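Deliverable D5.2: sample structural annotation.
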Amino acid sequence: MNKQVIEHNGVPVGVVVPDADQVKFVAVKYQVWDLDAQRFRSADEARAAIRHLLTGQAPHARQGGAAAA
């Protein structure tokens, strides 16, 4: 996997980059800064965490691989 842009409602909010057997989220928008540098099992898991953060919807996948804030 290469780096992948992550969008929310059509707006790029960050990228995920490979990091060992996970992906690391790099925030590019202030609204998702709380997730910056957290690790996830997949890009889909990162998207779910972003959706949860920005809309309050429960994520479909738990952030089990995410670093503690």
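Annotation notes: Helices lie at 43-55. The first helix runs from residue 43 to 55.
The annotation will be released with the project's public dataset once the embargo ends.
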